[in-house]
Design a protein that fits this description.
The complex is a heterodimer of chains A (about 280) and B (about 325). Chain A is mainly α. Helices cover about 75% and strands about 5% of the residues of chain A. Chain A has one domain. A three-stranded mixed β-sheet of chain A has the order 1-2-3, with no helix packed on it. Chain B has about 325 residues and is α/β, with parallel strands linked by helices. Chain B has two domains: about 220 residues, Rossmann fold (3-Layer(aba) Sandwich); about 100 residues, Alpha-Beta Plaits (2-Layer Sandwich), CATH 3.30.70. In chain B, helix 3 packs across helix 4, helix 4 packs across helix 5 and helix 5 packs parallel to helix 6. The longest helix of chain B has 16 residues. Classes of the chains: A mainly alpha (about 280), B alpha/beta (about 325). The interface between A and B is medium-sized, with 26 and 29 residues.
Chain lengths: ~280, ~325
């Protein structure tokens, strides 16, 4: 017999693959970021920064490669945060009443939603990686096939944990709200600081103090560090800033994300247990 | 006395200061169609939401199919089917997927699900719409699909909250047929409605509910009979005087003046009383403009129990306490 969360997952996947336009545009959007913003910025930055000498033995990484990791993270963030909207629609005009009146445990609703969000994020991450490398993102430089494989799964692990955390956050907000417009507003308000106070598009080293503190607590920063470690390496220079990651740094980043996701799960569970839909 | 399929005692529910359900007690027998008839805002939906575990019981108790709603909500959920008042469908899923999803929610195994879906699509005559997205179904088809969904788990009780709201008259009649068919197959049905004809046509027993309270319970026939056999209406030149005269005739009850200027009353045998009444009124120099006599309909019963002018009267209350035949 299928586990309870599978029911929620099954239905969400039906919807995901049914809306071809939505599916296509959600996959195309990050590619467009890379192709336009990425290439345009890289053309400027690389002129400036490749002239600065690099310490011996450290790799200089082009901007497109640097922000490639940021685009994977950004896409995961946006997709996950906006995933809650379906819950609100379900609550107001859809199946939430049926689901809440069924014997399905609330944990299973949240788990099913999380799993379907992760599936979507993984598909997106893979497509961004593939497309990015086609247009010149230099991921996995000089890696052995085994190293590439390990790195690939490393990236997906980071993406998954992060995605679940933000799906739970989004679900918790969505189930507590009444109007889609309000939800859209709250989520847009959240995405801005999370995205810009991170190292997605630029190094945080030059940030003012306050912004740097925010960035150092930002889950998105942890995700991006993880992706860069696996995609680029443990020591490189980009935009004039030097990055060094030890295995310990990455383990701590991962655990921080696990902790964040756990907290978000509890938050979502609390909100769903409170939820009354009549 | 054997316990009914639904046993409710002193159910109360308030939203802040507003008491939506005010001490409901009733019993639904196995295999019957039982209706809550009441105006909008009478507390019907709150009552049903309490029974189907979507709202938490604040006070009182409810037992459905032997399970306590407050203590064993999961068991109750497995024993009931629900058709919500609002359309609760995913517009972008097919009829088949809608039922499959429901079966999965309730943990039916794959074989049982598939078999049951075929049976139910046949029962509600939607076989041809199996792979149609629900957004392309008509209002009546959507309702039928929701009824089929409510029956997926072979529930002991099917709850129908305003099942024909917003449907055209023909579709409503067809829907009643489906509901009767489901009932004949052994499912106890609890429905709420504000349509008198629906309650009258479908129900084995009706509770009239208003302001969160049950005002009367009985079979449609019993309820209509409490109004007496005949309803008489007079329009006269001097209503107060006419009322004083007519009140003295045998078997006349509940005589009063309606807002629209008619005198209304009930009596046991209008056909024999009317000539004498006319003679007396004319003798007293009262002009009678119109006379009307009819058998009570469910509308009259409803107006009788929920209409302000009647409910406030002593006589009205006495009548109410007399019936409650299946009373507890």
């Amino acid at each position: 017999m299928a586990p309870g969360f599978y029911t929620i997952y099954w239905r969400d996947m039906i919807r995901y693959f049914r809306f071809k336009t939505l599916l296509f545009s959600s996959l195309l959007q990050p590619a467009i970021w890379l192709a336009f913003f990425g290439i345009a910025m890289a053309a400027n930055f690389d002129q400036l920064y490749t002239k600065i000498p690099v310490p011996a033995g450290v790799v200089q990484v082009g901007y497109l490669t640097f922000m490639g990791a940021g685009v994977i993270a950004m896409t995961t963030l946006f997709t996950s945060l906006f995933s809650g909207i379906v819950i609100l629609f379900d609550k107001n005009w859809g199946l939430m009443r049926e689901i809440l009146a069924s014997p399905l445990r609330r944990e299973n609703i949240i788990a099913g939603l999380g799993l379907s969000g992760v599936t979507k994020s993984i598909i997106q991450a893979i497509i961004i990686m593939g497309f990015g490398m086609l247009i010149g993102v230099g991921f996995f430089p000089g890696f052995t096939p085994l190293h590439v494989l390990v790195s690939f799964f490393g990236i997906l692990a980071f993406v998954s944990v992060f995605a679940i955390g933000f799906i739970f956050l989004s679900a918790a907000i969505a189930v507590s709200m009444e109007s889609p417009e309000g939800l859209q507003g709250v989520i847009t308000l959240l995405t801005m600081p999370i995205f810009f106070a991170s190292n997605a598009l630029y190094p945080t080293a030059g940030f003012p103090e306050v912004l740097r503190i925010i960035a150092s607590w930002n889950p998105l920063t942890y995700l991006i560090n993880g992706i860069r470690y696996y995609a680029i390496g443990d020591r490189f220079v980009s935009l004039g800033a030097e990055y060094t990651f030890t295995g310990m740094d990455i383990a701590v980043s991962f655990l921080a994300l696990v902790l964040f996701t756990t907290l978000m799960f509890l938050l979502a569970l609390w909100r769903f247990r409170k939820a009354v839909v009549t | 006395m054997t316990a009914g399929t639904i046993e409710v005692r002193d159910l109360r529910h308030a939203y802040g200061d507003f008491v939506a359900v005010d001490g409901l007690s009733f019993s639904v027998r196995e295999g019957e169609i039982f209706s809550f008839l009441g105006p909008n805002g009478a507390g019907k939906s709150t009552a049903i939401n309490l029974l189907i575990t979507l709202l938490t019981i604040q006070s009182g108790s409810a037992v459905i199919a032997g399970y306590d709603v407050a203590r064993e909500p999961a068991r109750v959920r497995e024993s009931i089917g629900i058709v919500f008042q609002e359309e609760t469908l995913d517009r972008d899923m097919t009829a088949w997927e809608t039922l499959e999803f429901h079966g999965m929610l309730y943990n039916l195994d794959r074989e049982a699900r598939r078999k049951r879906i075929d049976e139910l699509l046949a029962l509600v005559q939607l076989e041809a719409k199996r792979d149609t997205l629900t957004k392309h179904l008509s209002g009546g088809m959507k309702r039928r699909l929701e009824i089929a969904r409510g029956l997926m788990t072979r529930p002991k009780v099917l709850f129908l909250d305003e099942p024909t709201i917003g449907l055209d008259p023909q579709t409503r009649m067809r829907m009643w047929d489906y509901i009767r068919r489901v009932n004949r197959e052994g499912t106890t049905i609890f429905l709420t409605t504000h349509y008198m004809d629906e309650a009258d046509q479908l129900s084995d027993r009706i509770s009239i509910i208003d302001h969160g309270k049950i005002i009367a319970t009985g079979t449609p026939w019993e309820l209509k009979n409490t109004l007496g056999k005949d309803l008489l209406y007079f329009e006269t030149s001097d209503n107060p005087k006419a009322i004083a005269i007519l009140r003295e005739f045998p078997t006349v009850r509940n005589i009063n003046e309606k807002k629209n200027g008619f005198i209304a009353m009930v009596s046991e045998d209008g056909t024999h009383l009317l000539p004498g009444m006319m003679e007396r009124l004319i003798g007293e120099k009262i002009d009678v403009a119109t006379v009307n006599m009819k058998k009570p309909s469910m509308d009259d019963v409803f107006l009788h129990y929920t209409g302000k002018e009647i409910r406030d009267e002593e006589t009205g209350k006495r009548v109410i306490s007399n019936i409650r035949p299946g009373g507890r």
